[in-house]
Amino acid sequence: MINQHKSSTKEHIKLEYQAILDLIPYGSTVLDLGCGGGELLSLLVEKKGAEGRGIEINEQAIYKCVSRGLSVSHQDIDAGLSEYGDKSFDYVILNQSLQQVINLGLVLGESMRVGRKVIVGFPNFAYYKARLQIFISGKTPVTPSLPYMWYDTPNLHFLSISDFIEYCREKNLNIEKTVFLDKNRRVRLFPNLFAQVGIFLLSNRGASQK
User: Fold this and answer.
1) Three-state DSSP class for 7?
2) Quick one: which of 89, 94, 61 has its CA closest to 77?
3) How far is residue 13 from each of residues 9, 18, 42, 119, 169, measured CA to CA in Å?
4) In terms of Cα–Cα distance, which of 97, 87, 105 is closest to 172?
5) 52-56, 72-76, 135-139, 197-201: least confidently modelled range
6) Whether the Cβ atoms of residue 139 and residue 133 lie closer than 8 Å to each other
7) What is the pLDDT of residues 74-84, one digit of tens each?
8) Which domains does the chain have, with CATH numbers?
């Protein structure tokens, strides 16, 4: 698996990041929620000419963002995004952060308000290797996309790809595009079983599809 901390100047870009880059047109305005050390955000600025801003709660991660020259706010996204107006950004990104928030509904709702489109990426708890670990060992699974022990995980919500599709249907959110990944390849068939990561491009019903 490609090291996610490799410099964006390298030609090898983590597949998960490349999938998100491919969803965002050049020159877009982007807000990355839970941006970590800024790996993805710096790629968006460098490769896609994005006008990017991040929000992160971890101070050490913010220092890394600053060292990359990124504009990042120290903020808890569980508190909402009241300082941003409706449709302030072309894209809001919740990559590997939605499953870690306390109030998932609030965070996703605010993201849909602030962004014209929202990109959500999360580890698939129904991945077949995770299922096998539960079945064989009877213990909480540890996989490349769910690398933490049960007592040391930042994840609060353990959801599957099918769970999220159903959630979007219930909340009347439009799924424009999906990308499903397993290690270094895309998954086309039975993603709820064979994909480690699901990436969704969302918009509100009735929103422009441009």
Assistant:
1) coil
2) 94
3) 9, 6, 12, 18, 32
4) 105
5) 135-139
6) yes
7) 999 999 999 99
8) 15-125+158-203 (3.40.50.150)
